[in-house]
Amino acid sequence: MTSPRDAQIPAWLTQGESYDPPRDHDGFLTKSLLSLAGVLARMRLDDGQSTPVSPSTPLKLVLGLGLILLTSLSGNFAFVLVVLCLALARAALLPLRALRRSMAVACAAAGLTFLLMAPALLLGQAHSPLLLGTKVLTTCLVAMGVALSTPAARLTRALRTLRVPATAILTLDLALRSIVELGRTASEVLVALRLRSVGRDRDKRSSIGGVGGVLLLKAGRSAADTADAMACRCFDGTYQAAPDATRPHARAVDAAWLAGGLVLLVLFFYLQGLV
Amino acid sequence: MHIPENYLSPQTCGVIAVAMVPVWVRAARHMREEVPRQKMPLVGVAAAFCFLAMMFNIPLPGGTTGHAVAGTLVAILFGPWTACIAISIALAIQAVLFGDGGILALPANCLNMAFVLPMCGYAVFSLVRRRQARHAGEKDGGSGSSSLGQELRAAGIASYVGINAAALCCALELGIQPLLFHDAAGRALFCPYPLWVSVPAMMIGHLTVWGAAEVVFTVGILGFVRRVAPDFGLARFGGTGLAGASDDVGAQPAPVRTVRAAGPVLGLVAALAIATPLGLIATGDAWGEWSTADLATRVGYTPSGMARGWEWSSLMPDYSLGALPSWLGYVLSAVAGVSLLLIAFRLLSGASTPKVDFGPRDDD
Question: Which candidate from B332, B343, B349 shows the least CB-CB separation from A91?
């Protein structure tokens, strides 16, 4: 047996490698894969785990919608600034990924609004672009705060608690699940296509139809499977959402949040009276 | 110490802005190299301490008010260059959102409070710590034992020197205006008070009450942070060990430890934010921060450069919110300022590239 000291490196291993693969025309595949991965990452974004002081999901939804409504209706800039302060405080405590997305969306929307309203500056209405821009920034921050801190499944469950018709929730729930499922399938098909077409190939774009067809077939099969499963389980149109896992002091926490919401409501009417 | 708009001539503002650009560039480079990605959000928390310290106005007999800055605190925790960036961002938020300090005067305010203050404060802190180390070495036969009390004593001396150096700079900037910029009749175009008025007016308050307030803020917060979250700052700059105080320029930064116990520190930030309305007890403006109309009443004329000057209308002027009570406006302003600082430094931490230190561990 050869000892490790006597072992020689084979000659082929000492030769340098200069393999430079030709640049492939795979922009379609790369872009599609990246955008799909982005959509899937967003759909699975469940960073916002509830803490002991978080409100229950239905209350969070109601408070979020209420704040957006009040901010939009407010004619007093001070109220918009109060909500902006609170929304900024909430955003500062979001997980980093959610914070980055939330700030990007809110700042882009507010910037666009300000640009669209900029001609008002020339007409002597300097206040309007500022008010609208701040309102858009505030409402976007509130909406993103609610959306990014609540998993999709909890949102549909919250809708059931809010007495939204069962058919609407079922449709929404199935759509959300299907997007994730079909996105995963599309991603697998695109990876398979990339692996099978190594080298220079100008004809990758023609595979769009193939990928779409596979997805359509998969969607049809999934829909049929879901219908069969529903029939087997004697689905009668009622959609029972499982209740939220009970948290310690949930009622007290919800009551505190509700009281905070009421204070904001009173503040809204007080400030509206001053306009 | 926040120089308002139009108190400095545009020429002075321009020269100071040009001088500050390389400082900010160097500070950003230092921060990127020295502060690990995981600790970047904590710099935001330290900057929040500065922001809140500047909201507590403390009165002096005679109707003037002043405040602490806590800049030496940030320098001790994260290094003077990181403190420069942190305080600059806090000052920018104050100027843009709350109208505290002018937009054109922002570089001058940054020079005083974000550069001179932390640099002087940290230099004195290092000096005192080195003397303490030498003293302890002679006493213990070279064992070099240290205590939190000694570090706090050094921080107290350093913060006192730091804020007074910043106040002196501010007084010099204001005081040279009437000497450099006046009309044919000898009337000042901008700040009308010459050096022999501005220097004593600024220094008397800072050598007494506001210097003491800076010491209380720095020592109090540093003592709290060291007790509840020893890993909060960077060990190479402060630390409870004397080794951290030495000027070991070539030394590797301490390995990134898990950031523990940041909760109590955030609790202190929240408590300070709620307590900010105490700053409203002090009525009146700080010296050199009067409105143009108030200044005209004091000196008997409106300096023409100030009368023609540019004014920024901020969203929440003087930390107030329209018709809301001033205490509520103050608390909400504190919440907004602290939130913006935390968001800015958390986004910075997300943007910075992660670094892995494969060097030898110094905690084995």
Answer: B343
* ipTM score assigned to the predicted complex: 0.84
Task: Write out the two tokens for A213.
Answer: 């067809």
Q: Is the backbone of residue A23 left (phi > 0), alpha (psi -120 to 50) or beta?
A: beta
User: Would the CB atoms of A274 and B323 count as touching at under 8 Å?
Assistant: yes
Domain ranges of chain A: 27-33+57-237+251-274
How long, in residues, is chain B?
364
pLDDT per residue as tens digits for the range A153-209: 777 777 777 777 877 887 877 887 777 778 888 788 878 877 777 666 666 667 777
Chain B residues near residue A76 by CB distance under 8 angstroms: 322-323
Interchain proximity A78–B321, CB inside 8 Å: yes
pTM, whole model, 2 decimals?
0.81
Location of structure tokens 């939009």: A72
Enter the tokens of residue A183: 């996105």
Cα angle, residue B187 at apex, residues B181 and B191 outer, rounded to 5°: 55
DSSP assignments along A114-165, one per residue: HHHHTHHHHTT-THHHHHHHHHHHHHHHHHHHHHHTS-HHHHHHHHHHTT--
Contacts of B324 in chain A (CB under 8 A): 78, 82, 271
Per CB-CB distance under 8 Å, the chain A contacts of B315 are 81, 130, 134
Q: All domains of chain B, ordered by start, with CATH?
A: 10-351 (1.10.1760.20)
